[in-house]
Amino acid sequence: MLGKHGFDLWANYYDQTVQINEDAFAGYKQILNLIFNEQCKSQNPPY
What we know:
By secondary structure, the protein is mainly alpha-helical. The protein has one domain (4-42). It is 70% helix and 0% strand. It has helices at residues 4-21, 28-42. The protein is flat and about 40 Å long.
């Protein structure tokens, strides 16, 4: 999960992102992959 600072950074650009993409879920898969990859870097992957 994003910490408070990370969430605040993301939230600052949310409205702009939605306006550009006209979809609140645009890039959802991309951000999930980013979070997953960052988590794997910080731990030993379970596989």
